[in-house]
């Protein structure tokens, strides 16, 4: 199995032409094509975690609780 990645252009009529030399003999092959438009600006997705933001309140000694849990083992 070979994995090929290349960037090419689609012509004005909407056709994608591929002419790729391989090391394979004249055999049948399965081809998977993934079209991912390339933009001139690589945009970073902006994530909004505002609905997940919260605050925990702890009453007690955190170190003592950790030691207590560790001693259970």
Structure in words:
The longest helix is centred in the last third of the chain and has 10 residues, at 62-71. With 73 residues, the chain is low in regular secondary structure. It has a domain at 1-37. 14% of the residues lie in helices and 0% in strands. The two termini are 49 Å apart. The mean pLDDT is 82. The protein is built from one helix and no strands. It has one helix spanning 62-71.
Give a topology summary.
Elements: H1 62-71
Strand content: under 5%
**Structural classification:** little secondary structure
User: Roughly how many Å apart are the termini?
Assistant: 49 Å
Quick check: average pLDDT? 82
Radius of gyration: 28 Å
Report the total helices: 1
What's the order of the H and E elements? H
Q: Specify the overall morphology.
A: elongated
Helical fraction equals 10-25%
> In this structure, how is the largest beta sheet organized?
none
Q: How would you describe the oligomerization state of the chains in this entry?
A: single chain
Poorly predicted parts? none
Number of strands: 0
């Amino acid at each position: 199995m070979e994995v090929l990645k290349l960037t090419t252009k689609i012509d004005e009529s909407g056709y994608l032409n591929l002419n790729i030399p391989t090391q394979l003999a004249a055999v049948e092959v399965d081809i998977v094509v993934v079209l991912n438009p390339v933009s001139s600006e690589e945009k970073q997705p902006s994530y909004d975690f505002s609905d997940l933001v919260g605050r925990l309140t702890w009453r007690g000694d955190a170190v003592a609780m950790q030691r207590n849990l560790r001693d259970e083992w």
